[in-house]
Write a structure and sequence with these properties.
InterPro entries: Allantoicase (IPR005164), Allantoicase_dom (IPR015908), Galactose-bd-like_sf (IPR008979). It is built from two helices and 23 strands. The protein folds into two domains: about 190 residues, Galactose-binding domain-like (Jelly Rolls), CATH 2.60.120.260; about 140 residues, Jelly Rolls (Sandwich), CATH 2.60.120.260. The longest helix is centred in the C-terminal third of the chain and has 12 residues. The strands form five sheets. Strands 1, 2, 3, 7, 8, 9, 10, 11 and 13 form a nine-stranded antiparallel β-sheet that branches. Strands 14, 15, 17, 18, 19, 20, 21 and 23 form an eight-stranded antiparallel β-sheet that branches. It is globular, with a radius of gyration of 21 Å. The protein has about 350 residues and is mainly beta. β4 and β5 form a beta hairpin.
Length: about 350
Amino acid sequence: MSADTVRAGSPSAPAPDGALPAARRGDAVSFEELLDLASRAVGGSVVSANDEFFAERDNLVNPWAPGFTPRTFGAKGQVYDGWETRRRREPGDDHAVIRLGAPGRVHGVVVDTAFFTGNYPPEASVDGCRADGYPSPAELADADWFPLVERSPLEGDTRNRFPVDAGPLVTHVRLTIHPDGGVARLRVHGVPAPDPRLLPGTVDLAAAELGGRITDCSDRFYGSPGNLLLPGLAASMGEGWETRRRRGGGNDWVQVRLAAPGVLTLAELDTSHFKGNAPGWAALTGPGGEPLLARTRLQPDTRHRFRLSHDGPVDGARLDIYPDGGMARLRLYGSLTAAARDTLTAPWTGREAGGG
């Protein structure tokens, strides 16, 4: 499988980390629009690496874009924002094992060598496995690994992009660099597949880590709408969704596809950190236009919670804000339908068609 290499600053470069590319209706969807399953923002972690002499393995899953300050030297040399191993003097390869924060099906991988120029790996490969529970590094070494990205050439200071044919469910990935060098970030984009046996009766069905995602949006000028569905509280306005100022009629909105169909009972509309630019009002509707929350006044810098009352399950919702502004998070709590729970359970219990 060949890589689609994109250099920083290239006109074909994807949107910054955390942002959705501004695609028109009907355009092909990039796998980078899907959730980064390995990101620390959803609980990803580097559980082991055979070497991290020059730069720590944990940098691989940081959610922010890598940075670089020239002529900053520590005891081991130039400081890099990534994972870097020592120069090999014997045969072999280096590797790092990552536990995905959200298990799922992988649709694409980005091996980002940003700022690594004379010290990037010439080649890399990525494998996946499904390991239930919380295995140790030693147990993962004996797991049944399968290839996601075959051994492929890399370019330095580049987002090396590898589309992946989505296959079995993946809980862990192993990045192998041939033979050594530095990688700034590893992005593992895909669709989450939560194990419903581990979910409580009422969950945030819009949560990105469970498979909720943004499918459409009126405006993403200052911030990605995908931020609305990330775990935890936003630390600043930069971690939310914000639109430009409207000078005409209309209002801004975002469309959410739930992780699975369910009956919604509670919504949280969080305007934390948005003080002079929070929306004045908001409303929620179902996919067919049925009202979930009537147009309601919002306050700046506030976590609002509203009870919802509607007939039957829904598989999505539309948030309208009036007329514009910014929000930190959107939570849509509810319970899965019996059919949705069975569908989610299938790949975890082996009842899925074709295995799982």
